[in-house]
C-alpha cells in the first residue's frame, strides 16, 4: 500500500489483510509528514518527522502491517503533482516505490490515491501517479538498474488496486470490501482494531470511532488480474494465497519434489490452525515443528535444483526462495509463542557515549510445558562496537517449564564519536538532506523506519531435531508512575551536549544593547576544553574563543554569552557554538544537542540538533508601552517573537479567558488552531467578541473551519471557506499590497514587497473565499497560474474595536527568523496605538 503521508494509509484494509487473512501487509509512506502542523506539541521539521514516524509504527502495532518510508521530505502543501515532483524529482519518487515493490515482492499493489485532481493535495496526486507507473516499471530490467546491482530483483505485482473514496465516483465492478466482520479470534472486527490504531495519529487529530457492524472500503482494479466474482470479494480474491498454491503458480508445475514438501507444510499448518486452542497452545507445537521440517526440506531442494534449472525459471525460484524464508520465520515465531518461550535483553541505562562501556543482561524464559535445549546465547553488535561475555550458562542447557537462562555481556562503544553517534540515528538522518530529499550513504536509500538494533542476542534452541533461533534486540525499560512500563532502544549521545538558545535572535536596529545567547553544556563524562563561536559561511575567519572550562561528569554548565555583532550592519549572520576537547583537533569538536521526542502513545525518539543560532538585525519599530495578551494555540512561537520585539506579553490561560479582565490588553492574539484544539477557547469566544466590541483589537491567526463553518472564529456573516480552502503554498509567490497606505501596513513600519522575501514553506493557508463588505482585504497573493487570493489578511471594525484575521503563515516565519514577518507582526499588534 502506497500513500504520501503518515495517516494516509487505509488502516482498516491493512488490518483486514494482516490480521484476518494472515498475509504480509506493508505501508510505504512517501514522507514522514515533517511539513504538516503539530496539534500536540512544539516539534517541527526533523523532530516532527520522528513524532509522526512513531505514530505510524504505533498504528502498525495494532493493524499488524509493516512500515516503510521513502527519501522524500514533506515540504508543506502542494496544489499540483507537478509542484511535488519539482521538489522531489519525478524519477526519485517513482524509484522509491519501485524499490519498495522489489523489496517486498507483493502480489497486490494498492494505491490509496488515484493520481487525479480528486485527490486534492499535490503530494497525494504524486503518490498516485508514482504508484501507477511503478506497478509496471518494477518488472522492467532496464528501470533503475542501481537497485538490481544492489541485489534486488525485478517484480511484477499481479494486481493494482486504487481506492475510490467518494461514492459519487463508484463504478460497476468496484470492490466493496467489508472490513467490519466480527472476528472470533480478535474478539472484534478488523475495523475496530484499525480505528484504535488510527487514533494514535494524535498530532493530526485523527481520533476515530471503533464502530461495530458492516464497514466497507471501496477499491477499483486499475491493472492486472480482474476480480471475477465481486460478492464477498477482497483484495486477494482470485489470487493464490496459501503457500502451496502460490508456489505452484510460481514454478509453473516444475520442481514436483519442492511442491510436495510445500504442500505437506501447508496441510500441516492448516491442521495446526484447526486444532489450536488458546488455553493449550503447546498442543500445536509438534505440528509447527513438522511444518518447519517440511519448509526447510523445500528450501534445500529448491537450492539444489538451481544448478540444473533453466535461466528462464530463475526469477520464479528466487521469489519462491524469498517467500519460503519468510514463512520459515513466521512458523518459527508461531512455535516460540506456542512453546511459551520469551527473551529479554536489557540495558541498565538508556544511553551511552563514545568510548564508554556498559553491561547488559540477556534472560531466556521457558514459560510453557515443552522441554527444549538452549545451544547458545550469542550477541551480535554493530561494526566497530566491542562485546565480551562476562557470565553465562554451560551449553547445551535443558530448559523445562519455569526455568530460565541468563547471560551478561559487556559492550563498549567506538572511541570515535561520529561513528558511535551514527549507530542509533534513524537511517535518513546520517547525512544532510539535499533539497527535499534525504540522502543515504549506500547505493540505494534505506526505506526502514528505524535504525537497526544496536545489539541483538540470538538464542539458538533445539526441539527434537529442529533448531530454531530467537533474536532479541537490546532495550532499556523503566516504570513511569503515570503510564507504567516504557521501553526504548538504547541511544548514543554526545559526550558533551551543546545547546544554544534562542536559535534565532532578532535585534531591532534601534536597540543598542548587545544580544546575548544562553549556552548550556551538559557533560556525560568529566572533560576539560574550550567553548568557541564559529561564524558559518566565512571561511578563513578564526573562531571566537568564549572561554576555557572544566566540566564534571553528568554536569550542567550554563553560560550567558554576549555575541560579537555589529549592530549597525543589517542582515543575517549564522554562528555555530562548539565544544573543543583539550588535546584534540578542532575536527573532533562537538556541536550537538539532543532533542527528545517523547509522548505516551509512541516509542521515545530523538534527533541531534546542531548548536547553531542566527542573528538578524532588523529595522523594526513597535508602539511604545504596548501590552499584548496571547491565547495559546498549537505549534507556534508567537509569544517568543513578541518578547523579542520588547513587547509586554501575558499568556491568557483558561481562567483568565473566562473570568479575567481582558480590557487590560491593547491587543489580544489568538494562536494557531486554538479554537479547534482548546475547548475552553471555543466555549468562551463570545468573551473575545465582547472585548473587541468594547474597543479592543483582536488578531486571529488561522483556524480550521469545522462543521459549523468559519463563524466559530470570524464574528461576521457570509464568510465562506469552501474545500479546498484557498491558500498560497508557494513560498515565493508574489504578494501585492492592496492598501499600501493603510495604518496596518504603515504603522509603525511601512510594509513593502521586500518584507515577503526569504519566507519559508508557504505564504499562507485557510484564506477566506468570500466575505461581507465589513471585512476589508489588505494583501493579495496567488500560486503560479491561479487567480489572486485576497482573503489572507483581513480587517474590520467590530463595535468600537478592531478584528484582524491573519492567514499568512507567521507561525512558520517567526521561528525561522524572517525579518519581514517580525515587521508585519509588529504592525498588527501595534494597531490600537497608531495615534
TrEMBL record:
Stored Gene3D superfamilies: LmbE-like
InterPro entries: Class_I_gatase-like (IPR029062), GlcNAc_PI_deacetylase-related (IPR003737), LmbE-like_dom_sf (IPR024078)
Name recorded for this polypeptide: GlcNAc-PI de-N-acetylase
Amino acid at each position: 500500500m502506497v500513500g504520501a503521508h503518515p495517516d494516509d494509509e487505509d488502516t482498516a484494509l491493512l488490518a483486514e489483510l494482516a490480521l484476518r487473512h494472515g498475509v504480509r501487509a506493508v505501508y510505504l509512506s512517501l514522507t514522514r509528514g515533517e511539513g504538516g502542523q503539530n496539534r500536540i506539541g512544539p516539534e517541527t521539521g526533523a523532530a516532527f518527522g520522528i513524532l509522526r514516524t512513531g505514530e505510524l509504527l504505533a498504528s502498525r502495532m495494532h493493524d499488524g502491517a509493516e512500515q516503510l518510508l521513502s527519501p522524500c521530505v514533506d515540504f508543506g502543501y502542494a496544489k499540483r503533482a507537478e509542484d511535488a515532483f519539482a521538489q522531489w524529482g519525478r524519477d526519485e519518487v517513482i524509484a522509491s516505490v519501485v524499490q519498495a515493490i522489489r523489496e517486498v515482492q507483493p502480489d497486490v499493489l494498492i494505491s490509496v490515491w488515484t493520481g487525479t485532481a480528486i485527490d486534492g493535495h499535490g503530494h497525494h496526486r504524486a503518490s498516485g501517479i508514482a504508484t501507477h507507473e511503478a506497478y509496471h516499471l518494477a518488472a522492467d530490467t532496464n528501470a533503475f538498474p542501481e537497485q538490481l546491482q544492489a541485489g534486488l530483483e525485478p517484480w511484477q505485482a499481479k494486481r493494482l488496486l486504487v481506492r475510490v473514496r467518494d461514492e459519487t465516483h463508484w463504478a460497476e465492478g468496484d470492490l466493496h470490501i467489508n472490513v467490519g466482520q466480527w472476528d472470533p479470534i480478535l474478539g472484534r472486527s478488523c475495523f475496530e482494531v484499525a480505528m484504535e490504531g488510527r487514533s494514535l495519529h494524535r498530532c493530526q487529530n485523527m481520533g476515530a470511532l471503533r464502530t461495530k457492524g458492516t464497514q466497507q472500503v471501496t477499491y477499483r482494479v486499475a491493472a492486472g488480474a480482474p476480480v471475477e466474482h465481486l460478492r464477498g470479494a477482497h483484495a486477494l480474491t482470485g489470487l493464490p494465497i496459501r503457500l502451496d498454491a502460490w508456489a505452484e503458480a510460481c514454478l509453473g508445475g516444475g520442481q514436483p519434489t519442492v511442491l510436495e514438501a510445500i504442500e505437506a507444510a501447508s496441510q500441516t499448518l492448516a491442521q495446526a490452525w484447526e486444532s489450536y486452542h488458546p488455553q493449550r497452545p503447546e498442543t500445536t507445537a509438534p505440528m509447527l515443528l513438522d511444518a518447519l521440517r517440511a519448509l526447510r526440506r523445500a528450501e534445500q531442494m529448491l537450492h539444489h535444483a538451481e544448478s540444473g534449472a533453466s535461466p528462464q525459471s530463475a526469477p520464479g525460484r528466487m521469489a519462491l526462495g524469498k517467500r519460503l524464508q519468510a514463512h520459515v520465520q513466521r512458523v518459527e515465531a508461531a512455535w516460540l509463542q506456542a512453546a511459551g518461550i520469551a527473551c529479554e535483553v536489557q540495558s541498565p541505562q538508556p544511553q551511552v557515549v563514545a568510548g564508554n562501556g556498559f553491561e547488559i543482561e540477556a534472560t531466556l524464559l521457558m514459560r510453557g510445558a515443552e522441554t527444549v535445549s538452549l545451544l547458545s546465547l550469542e550477541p551480535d553488535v554493530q561494526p566497530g562496537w566491542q562485546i565480551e561475555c562476562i557470565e553465562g550458562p554451560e551449553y547445551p542447557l535443558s530448559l523445562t517449564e519455569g526455568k530460565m537462562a541468563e547471560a551478561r555481556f559487556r559492550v563498549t562503544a567506538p572511541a570515535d564519536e561520529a561513528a558511535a553517534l551514527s549507530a542509533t540515528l534513524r537511517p535518513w538522518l546520517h547525512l544532510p538532506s539535499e533539497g527535499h530529499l534525504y540522502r543515504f550513504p549506500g547505493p540505494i536509500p534505506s526505506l526502514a523506519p528505524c535504525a537497526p538494533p544496536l545489539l541483538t542476542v540470538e538464542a539458538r534452541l533445539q526441539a527434537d531435531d529442529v533448531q530454531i533461533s530467537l533474536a532479541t534486540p537490546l532495550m532499556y525499560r523503566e516504570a513511569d508512575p503515570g503510564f507504567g512500563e516504557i521501553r526504548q532502544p538504547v541511544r548514543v549521545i554526545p559526550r558533551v551536549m551543546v545547546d544554544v538558545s534562542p536559535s534565532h535572535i532578532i535585534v531591532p536596529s534601534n536597540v543598542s544593547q548587545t544580544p546575548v545567547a544562553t549556552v548550556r553544556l551538559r557533560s556525560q563524562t568529566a572533560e576539560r576544553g574550550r567553548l568557541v563561536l564559529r561564524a558559518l559561511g566565512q571561511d578563513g575567519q578564526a573562531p571566537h574563543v568564549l572561554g576555557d572550562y572544566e566540566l564534571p561528569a553528568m554536569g550542567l554548565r550554563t553560560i550567558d554569552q554576549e555575541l560579537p555583532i555589529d549592530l549597525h550592519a543589517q542582515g543575517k549572520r549564522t554562528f555555530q557554538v562548539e565544544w573543543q576537547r583539550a588535546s584534540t583537533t578542532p575536527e573532533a569538536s562537538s556541536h550537538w544537542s539532543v532533542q527528545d521526542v517523547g509522548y505516551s502513545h509512541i516509542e521515545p525518539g530523538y534527533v541531534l540538533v546542531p548548536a547553531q543560532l542566527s542573528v538578524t538585525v532588523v529595522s523594526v519599530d513597535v508602539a511604545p508601552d504596548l501590552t499584548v495578551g496571547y491565547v495559546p494555540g498549537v505549534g507556534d512561537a508567537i509569544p517568543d517573537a513578541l518578547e523579542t520585539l520588547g513587547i509586554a506579553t501575558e499568556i491568557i490561560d483558561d481562567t483568565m479567558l473566562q473570568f479575567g479582565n481582558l480590557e487590560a490588553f491593547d491587543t489580544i492574539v489568538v494562536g494557531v488552531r486554538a479554537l479547534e484544539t482548546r475547548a475552553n477557547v471555543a466555549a468562551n469566544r463570545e468573551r473575545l467578541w465582547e472585548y473587541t466590541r468594547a474597543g479592543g483589537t483582536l488578531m486571529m491567526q488561522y483556524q480550521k473551519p469545522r462543521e459549523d463553518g468559519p463563524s466559530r472564529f470570524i464574528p461576521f456573516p457570509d464568510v465562506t471557506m469552501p474545500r479546498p480552502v484557498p491558500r498560497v503554498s508557494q513560498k515565493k509567490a508574489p504578494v501585492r499590497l492592496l492598501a499600501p497606505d493603510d495604518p496596518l501596513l504603515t504603522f509603525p513600519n511601512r510594509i513593502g514587497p521586500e518584507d515577503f522575501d526569504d519566507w519559508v514553506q508557504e505564504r499562507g493557508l485557510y484564506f477566506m473565499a468570500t466575505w461581507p463588505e465589513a471585512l476589508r482585504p489588505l494583501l493579495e497573493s496567488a500560486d503560479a497560474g491561479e487567480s489572486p487570493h485576497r482573503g489572507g489578511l483581513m480587517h474590520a471594525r467590530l463595535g468600537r474595536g478592531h478584528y484582524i484575521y491573519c492567514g499568512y503563515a507567521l507561525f512558520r516565519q517567526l521561528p525561522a527568523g524572517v525579518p519581514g514577518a517580525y515587521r508585519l507582526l509588529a504592525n498588527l499588534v501595534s494597531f490600537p496605538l497608531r495615534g
